[in-house]
Amino acid sequence: MSIKKVGKKISGAGKAAIKASGDLVQLTKLNSAIKSEENKVESLMVEIGNVVYDKYKERNEAEPDVFVSCEAIKKCMDKIEDLKLKIIEVKDMKKCPGCGEEVDKDNTFCPKCGTKLAD
Ligand SMILES: [Zn+2]
Question: What separation in Å is there between the alpha carbon of 114 and the centre of ligand 1?
């Protein structure tokens, strides 16, 4: 191979490398733009879900195809509430019936809202 040809070959490979890295930058930008749009879609979906669930909660109303999901969410919410109460018990605290604040078991009144606490 002549020196001239070797030079050509290297510059050819160099160009390919530059093109490849340019493509990589472009692909990264495109993928990140897709990710950004997907994130927007995701949060809008959550927003729709919250609207649907709030309506279900307030009026026990939902489209038939999402009613079962609403009921399942309600079950999860109830379970979360139970688990939170268990945490309060484990921490030897109680929950204020007035404002929901976690208060010391020995308190007679809620320090946040003043509600009288049951023993
Ligand atoms: Zn309170």
Answer: 6
